[in-house]
Amino acid sequence: MLRTREAPPSFRSGRDGPAIEARGLVMRYGDREVLHGIDLVVPHGMVVGFLGPNGAGETTTVEILEGYRRRAAGQASVLGMDPAGGGPELRERIGIVLQETGHNPDLTVRETVRQFTGYYRRPRPVDEVIGLVGLEEAADRRIRALSGGQRRRLDVGLALVGDPELVFLDEPTTGFDPAARRQAWEVIGGLRELGKTVLLTTHYMDEAQALADRVAIIAAGRIVAEGTPAQLAAAQHATRIRFSLPAGAAPADLPRVAGQVAARGRNVELSTDDPTHDLLALCGWAAGRGTGRLDGLTVTRPSLEDIYLALTSDKEVAA
Amino acid sequence: MNPLVLAARESGNVLRSFWRNRSAAFFTIGLPVMFLVLFGAINRDGTVQLTPGGPEIGYTTFFAPGMLAMAIMAGTFVALVIGLTIMRDNGQLKRLRGTPLPPWAFFSGQVVSRLVLVVVEAVLVLGLGRLLFKVSLPPTVAGWATFALVALLGAATFTALGVAFTRLVTNADSAPALANAAYLPLLFLSGAWFPIAGLPHWLATLANAFPLAPCWTGCARR
Question: Could you tell me how many helices (H) and strands (E) chain B has, helices first?
Fold first, then answer.
């Protein structure tokens, strides 16, 4: 199984530890265990993408860290506090953007933001919050009249009212059109510039790739991979080499290679951990035959999406 | 943060959105006033005996406190059941739970704002009743004190019941139907609409088991 994380440091519950540290989180709903020991570390100032298929346990994990649910076992520390008992003290310092949360449709954007500034000891000024999420134009409009994208930006704005150190974003762009997604990404990118730590839950690989410094993938209640997007791609062994067999050659004529060969008609696909040597062998073999060419030769690295699908598809059945 | 400031601010938030939502404002404030004016005009010179053989009182003097009791239950119980289930279902409550706002401050805001509306309603109903129909008002300070106490106690009771009742309402779509299923029968059984002296004993016992009848009786007491 893919493990790119460095050896886990010992559990630190003190203030100098990472923004989020979870060790061996277990959650049960009745008799059903849905989290089987989650380890997750979110260092200060980083955007960490948290990915998994529906029902994999990502929402449950995040809700434990946000203080909405109590874990059955394991340790968790959020900004040096136990989220199960953090109370208002912890909520002063975190911001939460939930999935599909309603607003009071009869209030304006400005009134709603002002209302939330009343909940924090050191709130950001109302106009600053509205500016951060680009809602200046809509500030005095009632929420009833806002578009879906504007409401989502208001969601993010409300999570920033208390000037939090740590922001939880739960599927911030689900259901958005491409333009609205780009805008939302800009807002989230802005959080990084503000020095915020972000735990970003998403189903979209491209979103994680665009925004996250590190990625953790959960499947069936377990973390199955963690690392930077580049580390994940590097750890996934299979580089794919594709080409067409030269005229007169059969798959059995191919030279010995390190990877796995699959032929369909004249098309050959080779998955290999050692693309350099395999390519050398193939090209040398082809050079000694007929035209000396491998038609349609391509070499591809797996995308983050391929890795995600490979890691999560077999797990869903097991769950 | 100062608890009183938090609770006062939260009440202000509830009141602001209350006035913005015209249909809710009408249901709470407008409907009882409209009934008072309509039925008062129809029965302008009518009289009512609260008990068989008892003294006759002016119809509107009977009807005005009934409308106030109705407004109290609609503005607290019904409004809370509908409002809180919507906030629960669309995630507003969850969002608030994620802020440092303590739950008690949220509920204080709900309660205090409803009490403010009850006071507004009482002034409207009694004022209009007095102006249009010469409704007789409590003659003494003690009478006023009793009246105020009963009205506020009624509002507080229905606020608590409304919050409790939301646990029985599984989704916001069914909230208006369920709230009205509790509210309308009580309204008619309580004596707020017509004297209930003729009610069968078991029905009268049932009516008196719920707070609306005592609330009305208290409001109508002289």
Answer: 11, 2
Q: Tell me, what's the ipTM?
A: 0.82
Closest Cβ opposite residue B99 in set A100, A101, A119? A119
Q: Read off the pLDDT of residues A241-279 as tens digits, 9 standing for 90 and up.
A: 889 888 888 888 888 888 888 888 888 888 888 888 888
Q: Helices B175-189 and B141-165: crossing angle, nearest 10°?
A: 150
CB B64 within 8 Å of CB B135:
yes
Residues of B with CB under 8 A from a CB of A: 1, 6, 9-10, 13, 16-17, 20-21, 86-87, 89-92, 94-95, 97-102
Q: State the pTM of this model.
A: 0.79
**What residues contact residue A304 under an 8 Å CB cut-off, 6+ apart?**
A205, A208, A209, A215, A229, A232, A233
User: Domains in chain A, ordered, with CATH?
Assistant: 20-93+165-234 (3.40.50.300), 237-301 (3.30.70)
Domain that includes residue B169, residue range: 3-220
Q: How far, in Å, CA of A50 to CA of A170, rounded?
A: 9
A-chain residues near B99 (CB < 8 A): 91, 116, 119-120, 162
Q: Taking CB atoms and an 8 Å limit, are A118 and B100 in contact across chains?
A: no
Query: Is residue B13 within 8 Å of B109, Cβ to Cβ?
Result: yes
User: Quick one: tokens of A30?
Assistant: 């009745």
The CA distance from A8 to B205, in Å, is 69
Query: CB under 8 Å to A27, separation ≥6 — which residues?
Result: A33, A34, A35, A57, A60, A61, A64, A69, A71, A72, A221
Nearest-Cα residue of chain B relative to residue A115: B13
Residue A133 to chain B, least CA–CA distance (Å) = 18
Instruction: Look at residues A251, A283, A290, A219 and name the one whose alpha carbon lies nearest to residue A38.
Output: A219
Closest CA to B99 of A102, A86, A103, A162: A162
Per-residue pLDDT tens over the stretch B110-130: 888 988 888 898 899 889 988
Phi and psi of B152, rounded to 5°? -70, -40
Q: How many domains does chain B have?
A: 1
Q: Which residue of A has its CA nearest to B92?
A: A102
Q: How near does any CA of chain A get to the CA of B115, in Å?
A: 21
Q: What count of Cα atoms within 13 Å lies in the side-chain half-sphere of residue A79?
A: 24
Q: Are strands A166-170 and A94-97 parallel, antiparallel or unpaired?
A: parallel
CB atoms near residue B148 (< 10 Å): 14
> pLDDT tens digits for A86-96?
788 999 999 99
CB contact under 8 A, B95 and A121: no
Each residue of A103-115: b (16+ CB within 10 Å) or e?
Answer: bbbbbbbbbbbbb
Average per-residue pLDDT for chain A: 85
Sign for the pseudo-dihedral over CA of B199, B205, B209, B215 = positive
Angle between the N-to-C axes of helices B212-220 and B141-165, in degrees from 0 to 180, rounded to the nearest 10? 160
Whether the Cβ atoms of residue A189 and residue A211 lie closer than 8 Å to each other: yes
